[in-house]
């Protein structure tokens, strides 16, 4: 947490010095804006990150030929922010612009192409197109296997992402297998409080939850949460994910009041930092709605589920499985009323 604010302070000092010495459209400023954008991105402040990435892009667009690799970096950065903001069509548009440049500029097994395939896959995953997501994650993984040492952290990212898709299609044991491969690499490569380890613990927790092993799931979610508390700002979106996942376990264990307590902590952060139509907000509303349903407060349940449905219909493709989940939940509650 302190590291991000310190980094921001230094980048902004450097930027002010450059402003006095260089013209406003100097390429150095684009790098400076990118760096500041990256820090905001890491802090979970996506609107601020987008603002700085777009400033960088404006300079590079004027200064560089249209197929320059630095433009691809810009497109990737902008795509990543849209992806985090849940605007998947915009994210895909920018990731594909980046990919076209990289395909022309780089040899077919270059690690940057692997990153590009990975980015595109993550959007398909968010859109619920899991077969397409798996196809692109595997393209990414093949390049990484050839280009990197077997314990490289970037391979762990691949294993995690492939695990995520298997989890989404309901193959929990396959998901766990990939999550554990990722975790073995990260444990060797990273310090014990690194945010990527928190993500890894979180993923293993998800697999155990989906397999019905709730005590194991809670154990891993809490490990993840402890790291995030130390490493991230209290309103970082990953903190909301932690609260949400812990809430899910309590729900599955039948402790609906405890579940609601954690869901509401997650919602508070998401309402604060995410755009009003972000898919993660819909997840929060859906979870809270079902917790009220479990507590037999059906009018409250319906109110939250309807909020979830409105967002999901606006932000997700019409065929996304989560839209059906929410509609089924609404039907279930209406029958109980």
From TrEMBL:
TPR repeats lie at residues 30-63, 72-105, 114-147, 156-189, 198-231, 240-273, 282-315. Keywords: Cytoplasm, Cytoskeleton, Microtubule, Motor protein, Repeat, TPR repeat. It is found in: Cytoplasm, Cytoskeleton. SUPFAM superfamilies: HCP-like. Coiled coil: none annotated. The keyword Repeat applies. GO terms for cellular component: kinesin complex; microtubule. The keyword Transmembrane does not apply. Transmembrane segments: none annotated. Belongs to the kinesin light chain family. Kinesin is a microtubule-associated force-producing protein that play a role in organelle transport. Oligomeric complex composed of two heavy chains and two light chains. This is Kinesin light chain.
